[in-house]
Amino acid sequence: MVDFMNNKAGTDMKNDGIASANISALHCIDLSSPDIHTSVTLLKQACLDSGFFYVVNHGISQEFMDEVFAQSKKLFDLPLEEKMKILRNEKHRGYTPSLDEHLDPDNQINGDYKEGYYIGVEIPEDDPESQRPFYGSNVWPTAGTLPGWKETMEKYHQEALEVTKAVSRLIALALDLDVDFFDRPEFLGRPIATLRLLHYEGKLSDPSNGIFGAGAHSDYGLITLLATDDVSGLQICKDKDAEPQIWEYVPPLRGAFVVNLGDMLERWSNGIFRSTLHRVLGNGQERFSIAYFVEPSHDCLVECLPTCQSKVNPPRYPPIKCETYLLQRYKDTHADRNSYK
């Protein structure tokens, strides 16, 4: 495990004025390590403990990551009227304004104080698959407005998927499955993969008054890769049923992805692996992050894995089709597009 109280991340947390807050020490998985046994052991412990871990040496260069963040900032620096021209469509592609998403309605007085931009799997309109709810053409800013922007994001989308597949192979081994279990066409062979750029505008969060950068939630799908800048804000709660809930900061780690498991993997593993509550608290500083959400194919039936059930531990969740599950989750957490007209 990495002790962040003795490195720069711990110092940054103190400079942010939250020295008394709990700081989470997460396992760090080196994707370039030839010691697969150790990697699987560390990952399995992380999935049992919190469902959150770091991955390093993942194959995406720091120079390219810096370019993706720079291009993301250029988008969010556009005037609001320009961004509203590329408002998200019915397939959740495009721009989402501040307060559009409402992840924790029981505890938030408004929506999340963040703006975002969705980029999904690009499928040409003349392809029958483009009619699926989470496939189709993306919404792009014009090349004249942001030259090279589309090409940068498409390249990142492809490279992030390869990192996800590498992580999924370790997860498969940790669940006593074949290493290529998630590579099958119905899983990550034809995935629903969504890149989401995020910008927190510097509003100070106040949990006691229901103001959050992003409200408490667990992710919907299989795996999420999160790249962050050096501004803190992400918190996790390992025990959602605790009273009171205990929240721990996840420090930024340059060059690493924060990886977390989604609700689908918790269902698949029969609750053995964790999909953990997390949220973002704004500390008054502008903050950027880039999330990459990966789910299996539309028609994948998410049901208890054979290695995760027994006579004494029968399946806890009914089978559900991936498409059905995702459509409901998006509907529950996003504002009606017609409200912007």
From TrEMBL:
Q: Which PROSITE patterns match?
A: FE2OG_OXY
Q: State the Gene3D superfamilies in the record.
A: B-lactam Antibiotic, Isopenicillin N Synthase, Chain
Query: Which InterPro entries did the record assign?
Result: DIOX_N, IPNS-like_FE2OG_OXY, IPNS-like_sf, Oxoglu/Fe-dep_dioxygenase_dom
- Name of this protein: Fe2OG dioxygenase domain-containing protein
Keyword Transferase among UniProt keywords: no
User: Ranges for the Fe2OG dioxygenase domain?
Assistant: 191-296
Q: Which SUPFAM superfamilies match?
A: Clavaminate synthase-like
In terms of Pfam families, this protein maps to: 2OG-FeII_Oxy, DIOX_N
Q: Which family does it belong to?
A: Belongs to the iron/ascorbate-dependent oxidoreductase family.
